[in-house]
Specification:
Structural class: alpha/beta
Distance between the termini: 48 Å
Strand order of the largest sheet: 1-3-5
Number of helices: 4
Strand content: 15-25%
Helix content: 25-40%
CATH topology of one domain: Ribosomal Protein L15, Chain: K, domain 2
CATH class of one domain: Alpha Beta
Radius of gyration: 20 Å
């Protein structure tokens, strides 16, 4: 058998570099927060909505939002951003610090 076929094949894996997020739907925000409150990862952990596994928060648009909330997260889905702003709330995306 030729040497090329005997040598094990190795490839590239992007797993060590992928960015993971803790995910929350608007439905959970509607249930757990009152009008005018601030929503961030710390507030969600404090109210036991989620356990922080990855340290970054992403808000998804499942459910409706009728409360005016200030939501601070690293990422938002398009529908989530639209629903928060439609309810009169604000969307904040923190500036991440790049490692040198």
């Amino acid at each position: 058998m030729p040497l090329v076929r005997r040598i094990p094949k190795r490839g590239f894996s992007n797993a060590p570099f992928r960015v993971r997020y803790d995910v929350v739907n608007l439905l959970a925000l509607e249930k757990c927060f009152e009008d005018g409150e601030r929503v961030d990862l710390e507030a969600l952990v404090e109210r036991r909505v989620l356990k922080p596994r990855h340290g970054r928060l992403k808000i998804l648009g499942t459910g409706d939002l009728s409360k005016k909330l200030t939501v601070r997260a690293e990422k938002f889905s398009g529908s989530a951003r639209e629903k928060v702003e439609k309810a009169g709330g604000t969307v904040e995306v923190p500036v991440s610090e790049k490692k040198s």
